[in-house]
Task: inverse folding
């Protein structure tokens, strides 16, 4: 069993389990939406002093922070106990596209060439991680949800606003991938 | 302990994000280049089963663990905030290769740089809070 879990999971297993997490949270009386945590943390740090947007009873959302804590632990468990020797099965065309940008595929989850402190401190690193992170935090709250809240929960409930948000995710993602990446790298 | 079930659900979620490779920077690049079915298969399966589950929950008026009916609120109507906010998030998703869930999961996985991504994301959310009333919604 453990050996089976260690292998990379096929998409239909992963998709099924993500739907199961959403339903499980529904049965716990909660909603599946991860980016709310960013607002909760801001509120908990006293951001309410600067904007009424953060003046709400965030303590009622403590369950969400526990879910976040679990998610971090889950990441740690994965790298400590559940790694496989099989390199990530990235498509050949992506490997080639990234190579032409000077990013070499190393078979890891994410490129160690980029995911290190030295790169973070470079101009490219600041754009990728610091600007990128800022846009994730700003955009998810502006759109009132992220991949979990809109693409999974919202689309499951056939919400048109969520479809519009997902279209937005792709407009931004495609512009970045095809226009900005060649400029940055 | 009442909160334990949420920690456990979070742990399972974190493992799913890693083993599905949805938390992989490479996979997000591949997705936005339409070079593999992988991410579309994951999201497609999750949404199809999600639609079916929500339909069943509504149809049979299923109750949650505290005995209350499970309700699904409709999102506020409009399009500007969803399109503009969604696009801004899309920029960030393609740059960092991480949406908010995987951002935290990959810290646990051992990518320390993601701590700085999270701090920036918190700053982004904070700035949205400051500018909220000035933005079209």
Result:
């Amino acid at each position: 069993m453990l050996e089976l879990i260690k292998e990379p999971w096929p998409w239909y297993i992963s998709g099924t389990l993500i739907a199961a997490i959403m339903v499980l949270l529904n049965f716990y009386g909660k909603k599946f939406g991860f980016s709310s945590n960013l607002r909760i943390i801001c509120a908990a740090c006293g951001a309410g002093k600067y904007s009424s947007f953060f003046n709400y009873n965030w303590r009622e959302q403590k369950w969400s922070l526990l879910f976040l804590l679990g998610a971090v632990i889950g990441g740690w468990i994965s790298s400590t106990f559940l790694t496989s020797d099989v390199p990530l099965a990235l498509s050949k065309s992506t490997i080639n596209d990234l190579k032409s940008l000077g990013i070499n595929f190393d078979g890891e989850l994410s490129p160690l060439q980029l995911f290190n402190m030295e790169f973070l401190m470079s101009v490219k690193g600041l754009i990728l991680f610091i600007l990128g992170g800022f846009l994730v935090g700003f955009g998810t709250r502006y759109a009132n949800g992220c991949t979990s809240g809109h693409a999974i929960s919202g689309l499951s409930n056939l919400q048109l606003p969520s479809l519009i948000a997902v279209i937005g995710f792709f407009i931004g993602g495609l512009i970045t991938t095809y226009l900005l990446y060649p400029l940055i790298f | 302990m009442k909160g334990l079930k949420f920690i456990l659900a979070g742990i399972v979620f974190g493992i799913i994000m890693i083993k599905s490779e949805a938390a992989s920077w490479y996979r997000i690049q591949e997705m936005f280049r339409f070079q593999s079915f992988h991410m579309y298969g994951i999201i497609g399966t999750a949404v199809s089963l999600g639609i079916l589950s929500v339909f069943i929950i509504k149809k049979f008026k299923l109750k949650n663990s505290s005995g209350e009916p499970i309700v699904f609120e409709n999102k506020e109507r409009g399009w500007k905030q969803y399109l503009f906010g969604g696009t801004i998030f899309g920029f960030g998703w393609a740059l960092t290769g991480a949406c908010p869930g995987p951002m935290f999961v990959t810290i646990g996985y051992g990518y320390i740089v993601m701590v700085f991504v999270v701090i920036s994301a918190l700053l982004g959310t904070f700035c949205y809070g400051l500018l909220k009333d000035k933005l079209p919604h």
Helices of chain B lie at 4-19, 25-32, 38-59, 80-96, 100-109, 113-131. The first helix of chain B runs from residue 4 to 19.
